[in-house]
Known about the structure:
The chain is α+β, with helices and mostly antiparallel strands. The chain is built from 15 helices and 22 strands. The protein has helices at residues 11-23, 40-44, 63-72, 89-97, 107-114, 116-125, 141-151, 174-192, 249-265, 297-304, 308-316, 396-409, 419-426, 429-433, 440-444; strands at 4-7, 27-33, 47-52, 77-79, 101-102, 155-163, 166-171, 197-201, 207-215, 221-233, 236-242, 270-278, 284-290, 333-340, 342-343, 349-350, 353-354, 357-359, 366-370, 377-378, 385-393, 411-413. The strands form six sheets. The protein has an eight-stranded antiparallel beta sheet with strand order 13-12-9-10-11-14-21-19, with helices on both faces. Helix 12 (396-409) runs antiparallel to helix 13 (419-426). The longest helix is centred in the middle third of the chain and has 19 residues, at 174-192. The termini are far apart.
Amino acid sequence: MFEKILIANRGEIAVRIIRACREMGIKTVAVYSEADRDSLHTLLADEAICIGPAPSTQSYLNMERILAATVAMKAEAIHPGFGFLSENARFAELCQKCNITFIGPSADIINRMGNKSEARKTMMDAGVPVVPGGKEPVHTAEEALELAKTIGFPVMIKASSGGGGKGMRVSYGEEDFMANFQNAQMESIKGFSDDTMYLERYVERPRHIEFQIMADKYGNVVHLGERDCSIQRRHQKVLEESPSVAISDELRREMGETAVRAAKAVGYENAGTIEFLLDKNRNFYFMEMNTRIQVEHPVTELVSGLDLIKEQIRVAAGEHLSVTQDDIQIKGHAIECRINAENPAKNFMPCPGRITNVHIPGGNGVRVDTHIYNDYKVPANYDSMLMKLIVHGKDREEAIAKMRSALGELIIEGIDTNLDFQFEILSNEVYESGDIDTDFIPKQFPQYCR
Ligand code: MV4
């Protein structure tokens, strides 16, 4: 096992990783920017080293600084968390060259899954269902239109290097296709310096269902059930839960086996997520694979009982998976609300600043992953997530009741947050009924979507 791990991240996930290491008897090194001198991860780690100025391009994204810090502090491994360098193939490769273990999959796999049209092709070859559409990517509007006609409208135009909804357009017919294709492609060229596009049939009002998988170096892969992440706003997840009310035990087995097959097809290692679209008729289609630990991993931890961060560290150190598929049983229901420093009434504008007072809820089945504390100043340089409030109940009804209770108890003063917005979601009848899809927020909260 590693003696010392460097955490190449900040905020609640850095704190989460430090705690896992401490429980495992592993020493921790935090890296921090000049804006994070007083951040909890900096204070909590055994050692901490400043890696540069506040902007993330000069600190948390600065590969050379982070690698130099790792060597200087004599850490054997880097945990990248999520965001920042977590899905940067070049960084994973540089780690390997420096004889440092990158806690995640290989650079080759990050590359292959980061290219969405290649990932789609790989999955088609592995017999994983994908949304009907083209197998090869397209580069010109003319060849795209020909392909679109064979797929049938409406079609979804997607950028191969895309993600988070960037470089993505729906076309409802031949008339609007060219303009939409060109807009999507322009966005892709601007955002990712890549004109490679691909087409899929448009799936109306799908659910976003993702399966957590975990793999060791010896070809063993398990899945830990699904998360329903349909409640999103502008491709930002707001609330996640596990299990999904839309998934029967039989469908879970089928989708889970498919997720495992997808991971095995690329020789996957470490934690990963297979994203599916689930349509109205319960057909599921591979969408993307995320090659990192995700923000919403705690809901899976609560229903599966597995500590995903510890398992990531174990398999990265060469240990076998600590569980087999038969060991895994999904128990109860978990919900996570992301609490952000933002103002829902002002188009969710980020609201950094000093937190003057915090009261953190607790109790049976309530988990809080956060880095905030009284008098902490939220820097303006990073994303606005302050806290993940996660609850675990015997069923969905109990989990909803617990979340309402916990949200009601949570106090964050001094800055604006989306706490009331989360409470409104938990009080919404459609949410309660479980009939949720990716249109939930625009349909139920149009006043927030102007
Ligand atoms: C789709 C889709 C419908 N049909 N693909 C959004 C982000 C990117 N990862 C893929 N996305 C979608 N792809 C086809 N063929 C609808 C979406 C989508 C969506 C997906 C998951 C969660 C929220 C969403 C909100 C709008 C659109």
